[in-house]
Design brief:
Layout lengths: L1 E2 L10 E2 L30 E2 L10 E2 L10 E3 L4 E3 L2 E3 L9 E2 L17 E4 L2 E4 L4 E4 L2 E3 L3 H12 L4 E3 H9 L7 H16 L9 E4 L3 E4 L4 E2 L4 E2 L21 E3 L14 H5 L11 E3 L2 E5 L6 E7 L5 E7 L7 E6 L6 E2 L7 E8 L5 E8 L12 H10 L3 E8 L6 E5 L2 E7 L5 E7 L7 E6 L5 E3 L7 E9 L5 E8 L4 E7 L6 E2 L7 E6 L5 E6 L8 E6 L6 E2 L7 E5 L6 E17 L12 E4 L5 E6 L6 E5 L6 E5 L7 E2 L8 E6 L5 E6 L6 E6 L6 E2 L8 E6 L5 E6 L6 E6 L7 E2 L6 E5 L5 E5 L6 E5 L6 E4 L10 E3 L3 E9 L6 E9 L5 E6 L10 E3 L5 E18 L3
Parallel strand pairs: 2-4
Antiparallel strand pairs: 1-3, 5-18, 6-7, 8-12, 9-10, 10-11, 11-12, 13-15, 14-15, 16-17, 19-20, 20-65, 21-22, 22-23, 23-24, 25-26, 26-27, 27-28, 29-30, 30-31, 31-32, 33-34, 34-35, 35-36, 37-38, 38-39, 39-40, 41-42, 42-43, 42-65, 44-45, 45-46, 46-47, 48-49, 49-50, 50-51, 52-53, 53-54, 54-55, 56-57, ...
Helix pairs in contact: 1-3
């Protein structure tokens, strides 16, 4: 099961973006604050299966921000009040920040510079620079580059790379990890596998560095290079720099997971190349920059499109405008420090664009004895100021209209007199639709979703402005499309699927609603159309590549949508003894071209249960710890099945699934068979289960009483469910002796405990951040958990695996991770305490596709 937050017009993207806005240092950890939410409809609700709220979107990852870094904006040329982006877009993410050098040397490397083309690699400080500008390069790609540069022009075998990176590690998908590292390296260098300038692939053998390499310290040219110096590399020497400091953001209560953003936006992604035809329709990639492009909205004349773009790791989202036929994207509002913009909405005359502006609060001085986790908690409690602004559509100064609370959507009425927003005033309530006068002088609430729902999002106006369509979202992550009068009244439901919605638009004639949904089965969302009177939805013949956020102009035969890409794997990290350094980097243990999450070791450590969408829908799988011999156990065929846990004897698995509109708990034999339903939650949800040590009870979280608390039920059904906690509870573990129950909470930081037979609640450690409710693992001697930490000799804040010792009551750091994990239940430690398995984000991004000849 995975939690969600907010609703952005792009359902899978904002998971990894806005996560940068709340603090001041570099970090892969995220934070949360009250203000704007940009994700998907699930807000504080829960989504299972793909572990993301309908909005894995703009923050795909919500470990939202908390400590940020200074980044230069995209390479741009100033043009009075606005900026245009060259068609080449960004080659990489560049940071002007000079961090203290990392003194640790790569084994066998000399402490000197290597130069090739306009690149310089410093093996001592572990920095790669392009024309003097520092590039972000992760640990594994750096090590690959360092090894290749030791012997330029020579073949470096895959076996040698495996040995140099992982030593004698016995298992892991090393080939896939090498492929990923080389792909990231090529992307950073702007290299092409088919026409290489730097790294040549020798199929099934290895790689060779083919560009000339010099050692500036010695002034000696390396004569072993296989080709001439690369030509035509665009220099960045004249690029205009726009320093900005962002803190990790979480627009309005987004989750405090560990910055997926840190890893997602900077990853390469697949782009659509060229124009394709599907029957009478013509599909054209309208954008294709690195990062996330989302929330597209047509101008009233159908000739331009406004959208939000996050160009690179920890960049601030901002609004850009592009002509459909030609021209480069133009930034709507000048770049400003600590400020970002999202949710564009055109005025009916096309002269102005409204958007939501959010601003990071002022810095604060932490107390000298505060841990990093305590500092981040303060940032999570800070309020992110959000307001609606307008600016001329041709670019210019922005003007404030009115303040908003926690907002997920913004639309401008066809008559220009008012705005439609999706907001909530407090973190616990559902999102509702509001009608706000254009000058901000009057507000009227239009919808009243039930208290245990995530609320109403993705609103869209009919062309004549008389009707509104929107998505009503259940706490389990499911959604349906509703239609109502723009003046208010009782909403009318027109879909009956309970599958999560990824965006809504009206057809040009106003007779149909077009929406994004996975209702056809499987993990990926596609586009559908349904009459406003209801009926059976019809799938559109395009957009089957995870299409979200459809939009249709008032004029012109077009439709645009967001195409997103996503791939997450389960990584393995060796756990060193306390005080010992980590000897090997992480490696992919369980991977595929789809998504993997929620790993759990069996009691004897010989097998791993996990959730994966590799079969086309989220199901429960079992494999060996290295990912081999994978067997699919469930076949629900829906998007939300996950959170597996082994029975104490290793013969059964308990998990949550949502075959209908709400989630329940199921048990299945570890060898396979038919799942058996354990709970019947009705209109509520039961999620994230675990076993008692004697195997007689199953604990789980339920919102039956309005908040997420722990309950337990007898496995054999002999007793009715019993409520265990009354002040919140999530992700339970029973101690080895069966006397103590440990658990996290949905909206609070920390790990808590209480006696199994009842009694007061005790805070065990406050170092587990809120929304990281399953990034901890219980052992007999203590608790493994993920918390913020710093690399040696560096101010960078990274996810750190730590151990809380029950006997000493102290916590020690064990090792850092190379990337932040994905939101949801994604961490397990082997019974012998030597191996960590954790879900981490893979490639991700989004671009805007234009459909021509759409009617």
């Amino acid at each position: 099961m995975r939690a969600l937050a907010v609703s952005v017009a792009s359902a899978k993207i904002v998971p990894r973006i806005l996560t940068n806005f709340m603090a001041s240092a570099t970090s892969k950890f995220g934070s949360q604050s009250d203000g704007v939410r940009f994700d998907t409809p699930c807000a504080d609700g829960v989504q299972f299966g793909n572990y993301g709220c309908p909005a894995k979107q703009l923050l795909h990852s919500r470990l939202l921000g908390d400590m940020s870094r200074r980044l230069w904006g995209p390479r741009v040329r100033r043009n009075e009040l606005y900026e245009t982006i060259p068609s080449g877009q960004l080659d990489s993410v560049v940071s002007p920040e000079l961090q203290p050098p990392n003194r640790e040397l790569l084994e066998g490397a000399e402490p000197h510079l290597r130069r090739f083309g306009i690149f310089d690699l410093n093996l001592r400080t572990r920095e790669l620079r392009k024309a003097g500008l520092r590039l972000r390069l992760q640990e594994q790609p750096f090590r690959v580059l360092a090894v290749l540069l030791e012997r330029p022009g020579e073949l470096i075998s895959r076996d040698e790379l495996k040995r140099r990176l992982w030593g004698e590690a016995e298992f892991g998908d090393f080939d896939q990890a090498i492929n990923v590292a080389v792909k990231k390296l090529r992307r950073t260098l702007g290299d092409d596998a088919d026409s290489p300038r730097f790294i040549e692939t020798l199929p099934r053998r290895g790689y060779r560095f083919i560009a000339p390499v010099t050692t500036p310290g010695n002034g000696t040219a390396n004569v072993n290079a296989a080709t001439d110096e690369p030509k035509g590399i665009a220099t960045a020497a004249h690029a205009t720099r726009f320093p900005r400091q962002y803190g990790f953001v979480v627009l309005a209560g987004a989750l405090a997971l560990i910055a997926i953003v840190a890893s997602v936006i900077s990853r390469p992604r697949q782009h659509s190349f060229g124009v394709t035809s599907v029957g009478e329709f013509r599909l054209v990639p309208l954008t294709g920059a690195l990062g996330f492009e989302l929330q597209p909205q047509f101008s009233p004349d159908g000739k331009e499109i406004a959208y939000a773009w996050v160009s690179g790791k920890q960049e601030t989202p901002d609004i850009y405008v592009k002509m459909l036929k030609d021209g480069s994207p133009v930034r709507l509002i000048r770049a400003q420090d600590r400020v970002g913009h999202l949710l564009p909405a055109w005025s009916p005359d096309g002269h102005y664009i409204a958007c939501v502006r959010f601003e990071r609060p002022p810095e604060f001085q932490p107390a000298g004895n505060e841990s990093l986790a305590e500092q981040i908690k303060k940032r999570m409690a800070a309020r992110l100021a959000a307001s609606v602004y307008i600016a001329p559509a041709i670019g210019g100064e922005e003007k404030k209209l009115f303040d908003v609370g926690e907002i997920s959507d913004l639309r401008w009425s066809p008559d220009g007199k008012w705005f439609l927003t999706s907001e909530r005033s407090t973190a616990g309530e559902p999102f509702s639709l509001y009608r706000v006068s254009a000058d901000g002088g009057g507000r009227h609430r239009l919808t009243f979703p039930p208290a245990n729902f995530n609320g109403d999002t993705f609103p869209a106006f009919a062309p004549d402005g008389k009707l509104i369509a929107f998505s009503r979202n259940f706490s389990s992550g499911g959604s349906d499309v509703f239609v109502m009068s723009a003046g208010g009244g009782e909403p009318r439901r027109i879909t009956q699927d309970g599958e999560h919605i990824g965006g809504i638009a009206f057809s040009q004639d106003g007779h149909e609603v077009i929406f994004s949904s996975a209702r056809g089965g499987g993990e990926r969302r596609v586009l559908w159309r349904i009459p406003i009177s209801g009926g059976t939805p019809r799938q559109l013949p395009f957009g089957g590549d995870d299409a979200e956020s459809p939009t249709v102009p008032a004029m012109g035969n077009y439709l645009a949508y967001v195409k997103s890409t996503d791939s997450d794997n389960i990584w393995a990290y060796d756990i060193p003894a306390p005080g010992e350094p980590a000897k090997t980097p992480g490696r992919i243990a369980i991977g595929s071209r789809q998504l993997q999450a929620a790993p759990q070791f069996s009691p004897d450590g010989s097998r791993v249960a996990f959730a994966s969408s590799r079969s086309g829908s989220w199901e429960i799988w079992v494999s060996l710890p290295d990912g081999t011999n994978a067997i699919q156990l469930t076949k629900f065929g829906n998007r939300q099945t996950g959170s597996p846990h082994w029975s104490p004897d290793g013969k059964q698995l308990v998990f949550d699934a949502r075959p209908e509109k709400h989630s329940d708990i199921y048990v299945i034999d570890a060898a396979g068979g038919e799942p058996r339903r354990i709970t019947n939650s009705g209109s509520n949800d039961a999620v994230v289960p675990n076993w008692s040590r004697d195997g007689r009870w199953i604990y789980y979280a339920s919102n039956a009483e309005g908040n997420w608390d722990l309950w337990k039920t007898a496995v054999d059904g002999s007793q009715s469910p019993v409520q265990v906690t009354t002040h919140g509870g999530f992700a339970p573990f029973e101690s080895a002796d069966g006397k103590t129950l440990y658990y996290a909470k949905w909206n609070d930081s920390g790990v808590f405990s209480m006696l199994v037979n009842g009694g007061p609640e005790t805070l065990v450690t406050g170092e587990l951040l809120r929304s990281l409710w399953r990034y901890w693992s219980l052992s007999e001697k203590g608790i493994y958990l993920l918390r913020p930490g710093r690399k040696p000799n560096s101010p960078e804040i990274v996810p750190m695996l730590s151990f809380f010792n029950f006997e000493t009551r102290k916590i020690v750091d064990l090792r850092s991770l190379e990337d932040g994990p994905k939101p949801g239940p994604g961490m397990t430690v082997s019974p012998d305490g030597k191996l960590l398995l954790i879900s981490q984000p893979g490639e991700g991004g989004s671009e805007i596709m234009l459909v021509e000849n759409f009617r």
